[in-house]
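TICKET: design request
STATUS: open
ATTACHED STRUCTURE:
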C-alpha cells in the first residue's frame, strides 16, 4: 500500500508595491519561510516581475508577477508610502479581488489596508491600519469601519494589522489558526517575539504609565502563566502587582484589550490547545492541568472562545488540517 502523500504546503504570496516598507515585506516572508516545521511556500511578487522601487531607501527585485495571486492561499499586502495620496494600480486591485473570490485570504500589514480597501472587500467590515493613517483610511473609504485602537482585525477572509511590529502578531495569529498553538509558539521563539498579543490590544498605551508599574504588570502576567493550574483571582493578581484591584483592572485592559480574568481564561484555553495538540491526555486531565476543574467547564469555554469542541480540535490537528 503506498504511503499517504503529505499535505500540500500553504501557498503564501507577498505583494510588493511601489514604496513598499521593508519591515512590512520582510515579516511575512520570514515568518512563513519554508522549513520542516512550517508547511508553507512563499513567493514574493509585484505588479510585474523585475525591479520595484521600495520605501526607506530600499528597492526590490521580485521574481513573480500578479499570477502569484492566482496561485496563493494567503496574500500579504505590505504597507507603502503615501497611501493617503496614491491609489494602487487597477490591475493589482483586480487581481486581489479575483484571488479573494477564488478563496484566498488577504492580509494587510499597516498601510496595506488602503490597497485592500480599494478592492471594496473591507466595506462594512472592521479594519485597522497604522495609527497615523486611521483617520485618512476612514476619510478615503467611509464604508470601512476603521478601528484605530487595535493591533489587528480578523474578519475571516480579510485581515488587517497596525504598524510593522503588529504584522508579527498577525502572522502568529494566522499560524495559530493554521497549525495550532505549538507551531505558533515555536515560530515566536525563533523570532524572539511575544508568543501571543491579542488583536484587541491597544496600538499604544493611551496615557503614560510609569515604567516600574509596567514592569510589575508584565511580571504579574508571567507569574500567572506559571500558575494557570491554580486558583487565580483578580485580587491575587492585583496583590502580586502591588496595586488595587480597580487600578489593576483598568490598566490591564489598556495594555492587553482584555479584563484580567478574560486574559487568564484565554491563557488557560491556549495551554489546553497545546496539550490537545501535543499529548494524549484526556479532556478531564487537561481541564485539571489548566485550572478549569472539569471537562464540562473546559468544553464550555472552549466552545465559547474557539467555536469548536476539544475533541474536534484534537481530531483536526491529528489530521494535519
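STATUS: resolved
RESOLUTION: sequence designed for all positions
ATTACHED SEQUENCE:
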Amino acid at each position: 500500500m503506498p504511503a499517504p502523500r503529505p499535505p500540500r504546503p500553504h501557498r503564501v504570496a507577498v505583494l510588493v508595491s511601489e514604496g513598499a516598507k521593508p519591515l512590512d515585506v520582510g515579516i511575512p516572508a520570514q515568518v512563513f519561510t519554508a522549513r520542516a516545521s512550517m508547511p508553507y511556500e512563499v513567493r514574493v511578487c509585484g505588479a510585474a516581475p523585475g525591479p520595484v522601487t521600495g520605501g526607506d531607501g530600499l528597492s526590490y527585485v521580485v521574481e513573480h508577477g500578479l499570477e502569484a495571486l492566482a496561485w496563493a492561499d494567503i496574500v500579504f499586502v505590505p504597507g507603502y508610502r503615501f497611501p493617503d495620496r496614491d491609489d494602487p494600480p487597477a490591475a493589482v486591485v483586480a487581481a486581489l479581488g479575483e484571488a479573494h473570490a477564488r478563496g484566498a485570504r488577504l492580509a494587510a500589514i499597516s498601510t496595506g489596508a488602503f490597497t485592500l480597501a480599494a478592492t471594496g472587500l473591507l466595506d462594512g467590515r472592521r479594519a485597522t491600519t497604522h495609527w497615523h493613517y486611521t483617520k485618512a483610511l476612514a476619510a478615503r473609504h467611509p464604508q470601512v469601519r476603521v478601528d484605530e485602537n487595535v493591533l489587528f482585525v480578523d474578519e475571516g477572509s480579510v485581515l488587517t494589522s497596525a504598524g510593522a511590529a503588529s504584522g508579527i502578531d498577525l502572522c502568529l495569529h494566522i499560524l495559530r489558526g493554521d497549525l495550532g498553538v505549538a507551531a505558533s509558539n515555536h515560530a515566536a521563539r525563533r523570532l524572539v517575539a511575544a508568543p501571543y498579543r491579542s488583536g484587541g490590544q491597544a496600538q499604544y498605551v493611551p496615557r503614560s504609565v510609569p515604567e516600574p508599574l509596567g514592569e510589575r504588570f508584565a511580571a504579574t502576567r508571567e507569574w500567572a502563566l506559571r500558575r494557570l493550574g491554580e486558583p487565580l483571582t483578580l485580587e491575587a493578581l492585583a496583590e502580586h502587582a502591588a496595586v488595587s484591584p480597580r487600578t489593576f483592572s483598568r490598566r490591564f485592559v489598556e495594555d492587553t484589550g482584555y479584563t484580567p480574568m478574560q486574559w487568564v481564561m484565554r491563557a488557560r484555553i491556549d495551554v489546553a490547545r497545546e496539550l490537545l495538540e501535543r499529548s494524549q491526555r484526556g479532556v478531564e486531565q487537561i481541564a485539571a492541568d489548566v485550572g478549569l476543574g472539569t471537562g464540562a467547564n473546559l468544553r464550555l469555554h472552549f466552545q465559547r472562545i474557539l467555536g469548536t469542541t476539544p475533541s474536534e480540535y484534537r481530531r483536526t490537528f491529528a489530521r494535519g488540517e
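CLOSING REMARK: The longest helix spans residues 260-278. Confidence is low (pLDDT under 50) at residues 205-213.
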